[in-house]
Amino acid sequence: MKMQFINVPADKFPDPWYMPLGQILLGNAIKDISDVEILDGTIISRKEILNRIDADVVGINYTTLSVKNIPEFVKVAKAKGSYVVFGGHAATAEPLSLFELPETDAVVVGSGETALRNLLENKLNPSQSPNTYYRKNGQIIKPSKQIDDPLPHSFKSFSRHIHGLDVEKYLENYVKTTTFPHIVANRPMNILSQKGCPERCSFCARYDKKIKRRNPKDVIDEINYLIDEYRIDYVFDTADTWALGSKWIDEFSQMYSPQIPMSIFANIRDITLNKLDKMKKCGIENILFGIESGSEKILKSNGKRYSLQRIKDVVKQTTQRGISVSGSFVIGLIGEDYKSLNETTQLIDELSVNEKFHPYMNIIIPLPGSPLWKDFTMDKKFIDKYNNSLSYNLKETRSDFLNARTSVELGDLRKVRDSLNLKAGLETQVEYAR
Prior knowledge:
Blueprint: E1 2-7, H1 21-30, E2 35-40, H2 46-52, E3 57-61, H3 70-79, E4 83-87, H4 89-93, E5 106-108, H5 113-121, E6 132-136, E7 139-141, H6 158-161, E8 162-163, H7 167-177, E9 188-191, E10 194-195, E11 212-213, H8 216-230, E12 234-237, H9 247-255, E13 262-266, H10 273-281, E14 284-292, H11 296-301, H12 308-320, E15 324-331, H13 338-351, E16 357-363, H14 371-377, H15 394-405, H16 410-423
Parallel strand pairs: 1-2, 1-3, 2-8, 3-4, 4-5, 9-12, 12-13, 13-14, 14-15, 15-16
Antiparallel strand pairs: 5-6, 6-7, 10-11
Helix pairs in contact: 1-5
């Protein structure tokens, strides 16, 4: 049996350089019972993917930002006799919508490793697969049980067991698509030391709120493997909450002797001076903080539980240790007005006096599965319009949200975003969906 995982190309977003660790994780879970191939629309053309579809099972990573391209892919897959199954954060948020596509056979919600393995072992009979919605005799059957798979020991075996991944293409994309122009790296690669985030930020659509961590030694072994196998010179650990808790950081810092620099994502609330010292010891030279706004009103309304003074203190403490800060901002959040927008630009100006602080900015993207989406679409004015995520249109959805939940105009947000990103050395008109 053969399975192909497809990342359908998204519109208006740069081709990211990150390796598709989610699909690699799934591929490793079934590699002993199936041939596995990943067709990634960020490095392979739409036409090439369509021509290469030939698997018994086609798994599509569903994102609302690629929704208008999805019907073509599933029609081709079904015409070639493939069993079509969807997964991903958006699929978990809106599984029933996907059955509006007649080609959809199943939708896996939450973690999919056990679900996919059971599906293949049972010859595409989904009745025994956890986390799986499926179609039977014209009816949509809900999962009989749901489980949460643990993180694997390693992602590193993709080069030997999974076809379709040209590592060099991802490495080449870094220079063209990075949101970190201040980071000097020629051959960077992403890893995932942990997964999940317990925070409830209004704009976040991820389903995994429970933290799962890999053994620190396994992470260190993987970094060393990537250095030896691919000559990487920089590591991006894309776990959302690297600094949450102390035990894992303590163990990692005691075991790890860094050969190359590293960048991590962390929550401002989790930072302590002791943790910063250990991060420096681990070779961490850059931390991305999701600051989001310079207005305490907006921070509070959108689930960011820290003050402006806390932001300033943590940025100062971090940079004093020689660690640069990438500050991510999202404008157009719930309650945004021109006063709060001005407060954000003022905070950025104040922080940017520090040469080791590097901001970049996005305009809000309302995503199914986020608290913001639920609040917005339950409005009587929109409840019918947004009852099916397959009709998602970013421009229209963003405009409707801003009109309903803010008092700012999209054109003004674009001017603010473009001005800041231009100063940061980024393309002004590009959406940076990270």
